Amino acid sequence: MKTVDLAVQSQNIRDAAARLLVEHFDEPRGWPSLEAAREELVGVIAAGFARAMLDDDMVVGWIGGLPEYKGRVWELHPLVVHRQYRLRGIGRTLVKLFESETADRGALTLTLGTDDDSGMTSLSGVDLYADLPRYLAELRDLGRKHPFLFYKKLGFTVTGVMPDANGSGRPDIYMSKRVCR
Ligand SMILES: CC(C)(COP(=O)(O)OP(=O)(O)OC[C@H]1O[C@@H](n2cnc3c(N)ncnc32)[C@H](O)[C@@H]1OP(=O)(O)O)[C@@H](O)C(=O)NCCC(=O)NCCS
After folding, report:
1. 171 with 108: CB under 8 angstroms?
2. Quick one: three-class SS letters along 131-150?
3. Which atom of ligand 1 is nearest the CA belonging to 77?
4. How many helices (H) and strands (E) does the chain have?
5. Hey, where are the domains in the chain?
6. Same CATH topology for 1-107 and 114-181?
7. CATH code linked to domain 114-181
8. Which of 4, 26, 62, 177 is the most buried (most CB within 10 A)?
9. Which residue among 82, 83, 87, 141 is best mutated to probe the pocket of ligand 1, counting the most ligand atoms within 8 A of its Cβ?
10. From the alpha carbon of 86, which atom of ligand 1 is closest?
11. Closest approach atom of ligand 1 to CA 95
12. Residue 79: beta bridge partners?
């Protein structure tokens, strides 16, 4: 396995990375078309950076980083690992790569949004406005292993939620992490 900068890869490799966004997201579903995924990749490379892991020449996962707040904050977006390569540490390795890239660029805070648009967590299907702090404090997975659990393992903290981001009762969960040097 090796890590590469997607900005300088062939169109074939970049297309394979884009295809992961279409075919290897679970819930919520990924990008609607290869064209939309290609545009996403081009946009991430233009605004920030994108790194992939290759097994021989096969793209098995990739991660993007986008600057916010004049580069003090970097958004992790997107992250995807090929289904057949999951639970082998590739996601963790990609996030570590993201952390070192952003530390080198002067980041203080890493951030991300992880959607719950299919009732995977206790933040879905409820009136978050009724008692937001309590809902955040009591956030739990409902059994299908929402990715917020993965990010928690990697040291991210839930910092907020965007109610109805994906439709009524389907929020986006915000998580952040301090950059350590
Ligand atoms: C989320 C995702 C990136 C994880 O990648 P991965 O390569 O399987 O993760 P790793 O093998 O590096 O896992 C690191 C740790 O997190 C745990 N983990 C991984 N996915 C998890 C999940 N969904 N729920 C709970 N724990 C999880 C692993 O068990 C491992 O724990 P350990 O170190 O105690 O053994 C991958 O499942 C994926 O691409 N999902 C579809 C796209 C997606 O949801 N992206 C995130 C959108 S915000």
Report:
1. no
2. CHHHHHHCCCECCCCCCHHH
3. 48
4. 5, 7
5. 1-107, 114-181
6. yes
7. 3.40.630.30
8. 62
9. 87
10. 8
11. 12
12. 63
- Which of 20-29, 52-61, 117-126, 168-177 has the least mean pLDDT? 20-29
Environment class of residue 181 by beta-carbon count within 10 Å: exposed (0-12), middle (13-18) or buried (19+)?
A: exposed
Residue 27 binned pLDDT confidence (cut-offs 50, 70, 90):
confident
Evaluate if residue 158 carries a pLDDT over 80: yes
Average pLDDT over residues 87-94: 98
Q: Is the CB of 88 under 6 A from ligand 1?
A: yes
151 in helix, strand or coil? helix
Q: Which CATH superfamily, name and number, covers 1-107?
A: Gcn5-related N-acetyltransferase (GNAT) (3.40.630.30)
Q: In percent, how much of the chain has pLDDT > 70?
A: 99
Dihedral of CA 108/89/25/146: which sign? negative
Q: Which residue has the tokens 């980083």?
A: 65
The residue whose C-alpha atom lies closest to atom 1 belonging to ligand 1 is 147
Radius of gyration of the chain (CA): 16
Q: What are 145's two structure tokens?
A: 């292993």
- Split at pLDDT 50, 70, 90, the class of 33 is very high
